[in-house]
Design goal:
mainly alpha, 10 helices
Length: about 180
């Protein structure tokens, strides 16, 4: 898209988000891709300072740099412009988890699922929220409900294994 239209802001947002997804999925370290993500996000900002995704990308970059207040400011700006921008809710939810506010995190992940009901990534994040608050039984209930809809989903199977391991149900987790 950038080759076809070098002034298309959302292409640069998408490029920044792609680099950031490499971090989330463990395909690259933050040191390897954050500068590339930042370059793309700043180009998007230059092209269209009114695009919410730009601020979402900048917030995510700040999140991965452990710049909490800056991340929150960018993410809230992204949502002010685009209240449906799920990536901003996602990073705000993870900040809530790291601050020990798993109730808020679950609420934010549920908002994401209302916007993107077919995303097993965010359903898995709800399960992870319950894991971090050590409510493993609740996490197991949530993941089992998700697996009824998406029985072969890797994210849900992985989160179920994580919860089962916490419950010391190792044979089930391995299976």
């Amino acid at each position: 898209a950038i080759v076809l239209d070098p002034n298309f802001c959302l292409a640069y947002v998408g490029l920044a988000d792609t680099y950031l997804s490499y971090i989330f999925w463990g395909r690259s370290s933050p040191e390897e891709v954050l500068e590339q993500a930042l370059t793309a996000a700043l180009k998007a900002l230059e092209l269209d300072p009114t695009e919410g995704g730009t601020y979402g990308a900048l917030g995510s970059i700040s999140f991965y740099r452990y710049e909490k207040e800056t991340a929150i400011n960018y993410l809230e700006k992204a949502l002010e412009i685009n209240p449906s921008y799920v990536a901003a809710y996602d990073k705000l939810a993870w900040i809530s988890i790291f601050e020990g506010d798993t109730d808020r995190a679950v609420s934010l992940f549920e908002k994401i699922l209302a916007l993107d009901p077919l995303s097993t990534r965010y359903l898995g994040n709800i399960v992870q929220s319950h894991y971090y608050e050590q409510d493993f039984e609740k996490g197991l209930l949530v993941v089992n409900e998700g697996l009824k809809l998406f029985p072969e989903d890797n994210m849900l199977l992985w989160t179920k294994a994580t919860i089962l391991t916490a419950l010391k149900k190792y044979d089930e987790a391995i299976a």
